[in-house]
Amino acid sequence: MDLPAAKEHRRRQAGPKARRRASIEKKRSQNAQHSEGNAERRNDKAFAFNSVKKATKMHQRRTDREFKSHHVPIKQNVDPNDDAPPVLIAVVGPPQVGKSTLIRDLVRHYTKQRLSNVSGPITVISGKKRRLTFFECPNDVPSMLDLAKTADLVLLLVDGSFGFEMETFEFLNMAQVHGFPRVMGVLTHLDQFKKSSALQKVKKSLKHRFWSEIYQGAKLFYLSGLQSGHYPKSEIMNLARFISVMKFRPLVWRSTHPYVLCDRMEDITNPGEVAQDQTIDRRVAIYGYLRGANLKLDSKVHLIGVGDFAMDNVSMLADPCPMPSRMKENAQRKHLSDKEKLLYAPMADTGELLYDKDAVYIDIKDHQVNFSKVDPTSSNDNVTVTEGPGEAMVQSLQSLPVPIDQNLANSSISMFRGSTPINPDVDQPDRRNRRKVVFDDEQGDEEPLHDDEPGSETDGDEDEEYQVDDESSEEFETGTFVRRPETTSDVDDVDDDDDEAVDLDEISFLNVGHDESPPVQLRTHEPVVRPTSRSIHDLVYGDGAIANESDCDGGDDSDVGDMFRVRKTPAIDQQEDGSNEGDLEAVNRWDDEDERLAIRNRFVTGDWDADEAGADDADDANPDEDGDDDQDFDLEDLEEDDADGDLRDEDIDVEDDDAADDDGDQTETADQTRERRLQEKMALKAAFDTEHDMDKNADKQDEPLEDGDWYSTVKAGMAAQVAKNTTEFADEDVHGRLLHEGVRVGQYVRIELSGVPHEFATYFNPSVPIILGGLLPGEDALGMVQVRFKKHRWYKKILKNSDPLVISAGWRRFQTIPLLSIGDANDRQRMLKYTPEHMHCQATFYGPVLPVNTGIIAFQSTDNVAASFRVSATGVVQEIDSSFKIVKKLKLVGTPTIIKKHTAFIKDMFSSSVEAARFEGAALRTVSGIRGQIKKSLSGSNQEGVIRASFEDMILKSDIVFCRTWTTVRPVQYYNPQTSLLGANWVTMRTVRQIRRDQEIPIPVNKDSEYKPIHRVERLFRPMRIPVSLQKALPYASKPKLLKKQRKPTLEQRRRVVMEPEQKTMYTLMQQVNTVRNHKLAKRDQARQRKLVEKKRAGEALERKFAEVKRQKQQAKYAKATKPSRN
Fold first, then answer.
1. Among 106, 383, 553, 1055, whose CB has the most other CB atoms within 10 angstroms?
2. Which domains, from first to last, does the chain contain?
3. Distance (Å, rounded) from C-alpha 844 to C-alpha 783?
């Protein structure tokens, strides 16, 4: 009997047991894979390639992938020990495309804060070692040009429901000309598509159009739509991730030119002077991060849209948005805390602070004004109340019987004694609740000077370099201070509340680049305040009659310290008010005979050889000082290379002058001493050369040994150079590094400019980018610039020669008049009337000197009302010179008056005999092609401008004689910088077409230039006559065969021909044979025509049959060719 089959056990597919079993199986599989990997590591030969071809292919693939990411190494200007400046991200797009919304969402993603107003640069912390600065680009051409020159990354927003607009392509062309930064596209307004098929079709078409302008595979993001006024968080997070991993390649122009994007601007002009005259030039302060290259202290800067200026003062301020990695307590953390996600947007009205051009305001919303009072009599011991300074201030304000605004409204002030009090105007009821920040003790600007006091945030290294003497410290601790009035000589006055609580160890540089002042002045905030107990005389004139020796930097009393202090005194003792608090009595010691003898040899009439010999002897007599020559030379001669050990004699004379005067015994003559020192220098030079050669060989041995690994070699060389620079400047103080390097990239700086037009402050708009670009030596000069020029293919009109164009090149935007030309086969630059179609030409204009290979872009008009494409042409700088030789063809026309065989007299070609004399020997040509030459200019009252010419054949009076010459054309020296930041009243030169249109002037018509049919009368020439004597001498073949026309028919012509019967039969037979032959040929031709028609019909049918197959093959071929790579 068969038993029923037992029920099979079914394993659980869900539940705790199933999850536990799945985890066990997963661990087993991982262990198995790990054991296999260990086996591979234990025995390499067992798992090697079995095929040589396979190994070769794998090696080639690995090498290709490795070298595909290589690029030409470019030096990074950011110091390894400094923080890099924030990455500038420009959000560009047409109006109403979602730029502000995108910036708000990105800021909320990075900082968890909401922005109410997007204006100016907005800096956020995106990581431990990266900061981002967002800037919304306005839709005017100047702002788009400025951000195309400075942006590191461009977020190009496109309305997906509308498609690409003119502003998008205009900005792409601007970016391509000025270096082409990284560009990422963002599609918005995609929620307006109802069908997914239409959405996918639009995405595909826009993506391919975007790729054709950027590169194949350029990233294009899609923002599906708004949810409660914001984009989805997942899409914003995805965009932020791509921004975080973006790498930026330094561009040539930016890596060689420093620039500052203005975070905020201050008008620090004396208010009294502004009240007297509103149109005076202003003194402004520009704040921002230094980008690009190091800023030299004596260089000029160009404020884009305003003009060129010299920097009056450069100050390095504390970073308002510091890196979290700089904090020691956050060095080991991988993620940012909410406190480290900082936001710095001084012009965007973020949070409760607003930086205005006059003050700093705190904005408190109406629903946030409530503050609960704490009852001091409450007996709750478990609650500990800690009051900060802010809470204490609010509680003190709550206890006032009358609010502050009522007190201010009821208060009055008397300007003079006995005058009528002035009552302020009552504020409008609809104004927001704002209170100006005012501190009783100015704690925001004046921090404790000593690092050991509580609350100091400065580093120890900086405190060692910038110590303030005890006397000034006592003044701060015990004295009562008042703020000095602001003057033009103040460098870093603490007169503004919006200096971001600047640390007192900031560095200021005064009067940079002026001959009457030192190149750099280093100071602290110690001399910016005065005790109130001083007299008016001391406040006005100062008390610097006697110098205080204890105020000198560095209290070293050694000989070397004294020597160094003597050399450094003129560069340090300059005071803020421009006076020199030196020893005034020493200046008037001219009556002392010893003083005059000590400096006699310093003048032209003195004995220089004796002074030099005495200095050399002093060096020999003082070995200690002589041993310090090299060290002192390193400190003093900071501009020259001291590697060869060649010390300057004048340096030694200055430093050892006292020792030379004290030493009266001379054991060697001056010539012997000079010869001995020369031998020592040569020995030192030979030792240095030997050491240098050994180091060079050692560097070669340390290079990579891989053949052809040029990339690794260059990278190693750059890293070695950076390490060498770091080692070289390791022992230098900040003052010395600034003299050599300037202000380093990444520093937050404050730059003061004077002489700025008042319109800059009057029309200041925080939404417009303000760029302060540094100029290299010589770039502030004007000259002739020749560029390779091409009209843009999308610009409708052909550009005419000598029409004014607005050109953007480098930091500048200006209007000029280009002169078009093209090179011919004879190395001649020929002038052109119009730009050629689809072809480059040369354009020469008068403008600022630019480096070669600098890109330019030209506009005929930068107005926002233009509906068509505004980019007129693009180009690149080829050559710079004081002048260029450009010629144009000049055709002089004359008519013959007297003709004598091969000689003719020509008139109406020149206006004077002097002018005609300059063209003697010039070539002539007639319309019929007869060549000639100008022989002589005729003189006389009736022959003014008449010339005598000789031709290769006799000409006629009806012939027109031409003289083709070349005349030099010089470009017009017209340069009109575009002042877009000074209001909308920039006057530009109009084109001829605009002038005719505005004044309704018709186009002049030249009758000779009209196209009309030409009716020429056919000329009848007489027959050539040969003399009879000549005809007899000619051979028969050359004799003329001229027969007279027969008036009557000849006898042969009149005689009738009668055929014989046999001839008639033969003639009839031939006619019949020809008829049969013609009939056969006709039938054959008809058959051939029918075959051609049938063959054509069959070919068309065959072509129609394979047309569809051919189209499919071509479509597949093109799809494969345009398929983007996955790399």
1. 106
2. 87-252 (3.40.50.300), 258-359+735-772 (no CATH), 779-886+995-999 (2.40.30.10), 889-968 (2.40.10.190)
3. 10
